[in-house]
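Can't paste images in this forum, so I'm doing it all in text. The chain is below; anyone willing to post the predicted structure tokens underneath?
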Amino acid sequence: MTGARARCAHCLRAAVVADAVAELDDNGMILLCRGCGRTLLTYLCAGGSATLTIGTLTHLEWDEDRAMDSEVGPAGIEPTTSTV
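Text version of the structure:
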């Protein structure tokens, strides 16, 4: 999902979800638009339930074939082998 493209409704910036600024804590996560700093979405988990609140995220698009490909890693990056 980090390779999916998202668009901010406030500044209209489009980028992969992995480009967003993530603020994390024990209760969840907030994704902020790197262009304007507005909240794209908020995920909270507390008391046995989870909540996803959509902020300025106006569009989310991903390549269905690549999303189902087990050979593709985070942000759509192909796995490589290290020579170190």
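The helical segments are 64-67. The chain has one helix and seven strands.
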